[in-house]
Amino acid sequence: MSSQARSDDRVAVESENAAAIHIENLGKTFDTSEGVEEVFSDINIDIEPGSFVCLLGKSGSGKSTMLNIVSDVLEPTEGQVRFENQDGSTDVTLGHVFQSPRLLPWNTCVNNIEYVHENNPDYTEQHAQTHLDLVGLSEHYDKYPTQLSGGQQQRVGIARALSTDPGVLLMDEPFSNLDEITAETLRDELLDIWQQLNKTVFFVTHDMTEAIQLSDRLLMLGQGEIYADLENPLERPREVDSDEFLKFRGEAIRAFHSIED
C-alpha cells in the first residue's frame, strides 16, 4: 500500500525540546603546505534554548568550520562545545540541514525520512508523513527527489532533520542555492515551524537580510574572532522593506564591515 493511502493514520508533531549551546575557548587550526593556518581562536558563545542565532561572515571566515565543530564533524584544536537540555542533562540530539538536501535518489520522500530511523522500530511511516506535512509536502509522500523542485527537496531535508526531535537544529546556508522567491517562502515556513516547535537554531548565512529576518541574534565572524554580537531588536513578523528593518540592516552592515576599518 502506498504512503498516500495510509495518510489518515498520521500522528501529531509535538515538541518542547530545545537545548543550550555553550562554545568555550574554541580554536581551530589546519596544517597546510605553508605551515599552520589559524581559522579562529578563543571563541566563547552561549546560545539560549529556543533561540534563533545566525552566524555571518565572509567566504573563508570559518563559518562552516565552526558549524562542523559544533556538529562534531570536526575536532577543535582547543576548547570545547557543550550542549545542555533544560533539565540539565547533556545528551542532546542534533538536527542537520545542509546547503544541498543530500537525499537518496532511489528513495521516496517518506523513505528518505524513514532511512535515518532504520534502527528505531517506533518510528513509523505515519511519523514520516507527519513531518512531511509540517513542511507542506502532504501531496508528495511517494515522489522521488528527481520529481521535486529544489525548494521541495530542501523541505524534505528540513523534515528529515526535524524528525529526530533535535534539541538543536544546525543549518548551513540551506537556502543559498534557491531562487529568491522560493528562499523567501522557505524562510517564512521555517519561522512558522520554529515558533511551533521551539527549537534552538544555529544558522550559518552570508546574507544580511536573511539573518535579520530570521534571527534573534547576529554573530559576526572574521579575522579569527567574533567581532560583533548584535541582538535583533525587531518584533515579529518582520517586513524587509519597513523603515525599522532597513534602519537596523544599515547598522548591522556597518558592524559587519567594521573589522575592515
From TrEMBL:
Entry annotated with the keyword Disulfide bond: no
SMART domains: AAA
Record's keyword annotation contains Transport: yes
TM helices/strands, residue ranges: none
Pfam families: ABC_tran
UniProt cross-references to InterPro entries, sorted A to Z: AAA+_ATPase, ABC_transporter-like_ATP-bd, ABC_transporter-like_CS, ABC_transporter_ATP-bind, P-loop_NTPase
Stretches assigned to the ABC transporter domain: 21-248
GO molecular function: ATP binding; ATP hydrolysis activity
Keywords: ATP-binding, Nucleotide-binding, Transport
Gene3D superfamilies membership: P-loop containing nucleotide triphosphate hydrolases
Identification of the protein by name: Nitrate/sulfonate/bicarbonate ABC transporter ATP-binding protein
